[in-house]
UniProtKB/TrEMBL annotation:
Protein name, per record: Mannosyltransferase
Species of origin: Triplophysa rosa (Cave loach)
Subcellular location(s) per record: Endoplasmic reticulum membrane
Cellular component terms per the entry's GO annotation: endoplasmic reticulum membrane
Residues annotated as transmembrane: 41-65, 85-102, 218-243, 263-289, 309-327, 339-355, 361-380, 387-405
Keyword Transmembrane among record annotations: yes
Length: 549
């Protein structure tokens, strides 16, 4: 009996002790949103690896893509009078040195906004203040800025998928994002499409996706508004997402009146103020952009494609080797992924209605697509590693080729011409004539000295003149006659002529008559087409007075 009492006392006293449960170590039960910081890639944290990867990406992209990456950003930044602007007036009243650069017809017609170039103009001003405004830094610093922004967007996308899906899907989504050859090719360029893609990716991370814990309406609506300011067509991507949010929202009037309208109004007001200051008059750039490019189809002047181009070529090229994984991932999608699929299809269809089409226009939906690629790789078991290796290698080849080799001549030739800046104070200042398809090369943003530069212009006809022919078209229709007509006397001749090698034979007699000699031949592309040759050549008149290569 005594033994039974002792056991009862022991069990009673032990029941008073705190019971300690084993802590679950699985990441599935973790509530720490900062766990993305602890994941490793090749022995280093994901954050460090991603930033380092994008900086390497920036260094290894040394080619040109489209003229807009210079003419609609850096060239405008180089001539913006940001030094001491008097905000009390709408005129541009800079109180310091005169800036120089070239404005294309888009800026004269008021269809481009100054908000995006202003970022780079501020960087230029900072470099000037610390006396480091060399041409190399003026070109490189904006691209480093874009690379860091892209790395941040990559990490936010990874964190979104990490809490929206499984850690395995998040890991492979980041892998697919970093592997994408088109993202590698575009993400460090100073294109408005690049900034649009970054802002769209960040906005998606705060969008109220079904099952997402990161949603914040204020943040995502602000980012969407900024994307529309940078590029008004960004609204196309967000139409289905905004409609979906509105339909699911219980308090619709509150969403519209207390969030959507105030954010849109404030963003538009600030953007209009910035544009009005630099244009010197009140102006709404977003309306002008949509009117000329969408309603009046001015973009058709620069080329048209059939309606199916995005489905038969454009989207397929942008996806590249990711396409099979994307299609497999789509087959695995559930109800919560539906809005992403709808957005991808909607964007591609709407852009198909526009006559002028380019690969970069569908770039903003590429991060949406890599989510499905990550789902596909996470689902594969036996074939996962071979598929990942094949994806890496098949993207590495086009990424390195397009980044280091294809279309690099138009940048290399500007490096050669930089040497003329030292001669601009001489008895005869250099006078450079570019006989190339218009806007083939950058201009003052890649020289940073006020040389006399001339090139063939090609603004579209905005007056409805059916007989209109731009200067570039007139030249290429009969190059030799144009040269003799334009330079009828020796005093009018340029000192340097820059052109593609496919034009040499057509104006060889003119060059010989006027004592021009070839001084440089620079590789451009292995795939010459039409008026674009394999090499770029520089001819110099009286070459002994100028540099030799």
């Amino acid at each position: 009996m005594e033994k039974i009492r002792d056991r009862f006392k022991q069990s009673k006293s032990s029941s008073r002790e705190t019971v300690k449960l084993r802590k679950r170590s699985s990441i599935l039960y973790s509530t720490d949103d900062g766990r993305a910081n602890t994941h490793n890639a090749i022995g280093v944290s994901v954050i460090v690896f991603t930033i380092f990867f994008r900086l390497v990406n920036c260094v290894l992209v040394q080619t040109s893509f489209v003229p807009d990456e210079y003419w609609q950003s850096l060239e405008i930044s180089h001539r913006m009078p940001i030094h001491c602007i008097n905000l009390l007036q709408l005129g541009m009243t800079s109180l310091t040195i005169l800036t120089y650069g070239y404005e294309t017809w888009e800026w004269r017609e008021g269809i481009r906004g100054y908000s995006y170039p202003l970022l780079f103009a501020l960087m230029y001003k900072f470099l000037q203040l610390i006396s480091y405004d060399t041409v190399q830094l003026l070109v490189f610093v904006p691209r480093v800025f874009q690379a860091l922004l892209c790395a941040y967007a990559d990490l936010k996308l990874y964190r979104l998928v990490l809490q929206w899906e499984t850690p395995d899907v998040a890991k492979w989504t980041l892998f697919c994002q970093l592997c994408s050859w088109f993202t590698w090719y575009c993400c460090t360029r100073t294109l408005s499409n690049t900034m649009e893609t970054v802002l769209t990716t960040l906005a998606l991370c705060f969008y109220p996706l079904l099952g997402s814990k990161m949603h914040n309406s204020w943040k995502y609506l602000c980012l969407v508004s900024l994307a529309v300011v940078v590029r008004p067509t960004a609204l196309i991507v967000w139409v289905p997402l905004l409609v979906c949010h509105l339909c699911r929202e219980q308090n619709k009037p509150r969403l519209v009146t207390q969030q959507c309208f105030p954010i849109a109004a404030l963003t538009l007001a600030v953007s209009t103020l910035i544009d009005s200051v630099f244009y010197g008059k009140w102006i709404c750039v977003q309306w002008n952009f949509l009117k000329l490019n969408v309603l009046e189809s001015v973009g058709e002047f620069y080329g048209t494609h059939p309606w199916h181009w995005y489905f038969s070529q454009g989207f397929l090229v942008v996806m590249g080797p990711h396409l099979p994984l994307f299609l497999h991932g789509c087959s695995l999608s559930t109800k919560k992924h539906r809005i992403l699929l709808i957005t991808i299809i909607w964007t591609t269809v709407i852009y198909s209605f526009l006559a002028h089409k380019e690969f970069r226009f569908v770039y903003p939906v590429l991060p949406f697509c890599v989510v499905f690629c990550g789902m596909s790789l996470a689902k594969l078991q036996t074939w996962r590693k071979p598929a990942a290796v094949l994806l890496l290698v098949s993207n590495l080849i086009p990424a390195l080729y397009t980044g280091l080799i294809h279309q690099r001549g138009t940048l290399d030739v500007m490096s050669d011409l930089q040497r003329l800046c030292d001669l601009s104070r001489g008895q005869r200042s250099p006078d450079v004539l570019f006989l190339m398809p218009c806007h083939s090369t950058p201009l003052y943003s890649h020289l940073h000295c006020p040389l006399k530069l001339r090139f063939l212009e090609c603004p579209p006809d905005l007056m409805g003149n059916k007989e209109y022919v731009d200067e570039a078209e007139m030249f290429f229709s009969d190059p030799l006659s144009w040269m003799r007509r334009s330079f009828s006397s020796q005093e009018m001749l340029p000192t340097h002529v820059v052109m593609f090698d496919c034009l040499e034979k057509e104006i060889a007699s003119f060059l010989l008559e006027n004592r021009f000699a070839k001084q440089a031949e620079i590789f451009h592309t292995h795939f010459p087409e039409g008026r674009v040759g394999e090499n770029i050549v520089i001819y110099v008149r009286n070459p002994s007075h100028y540099f030799t290569v």
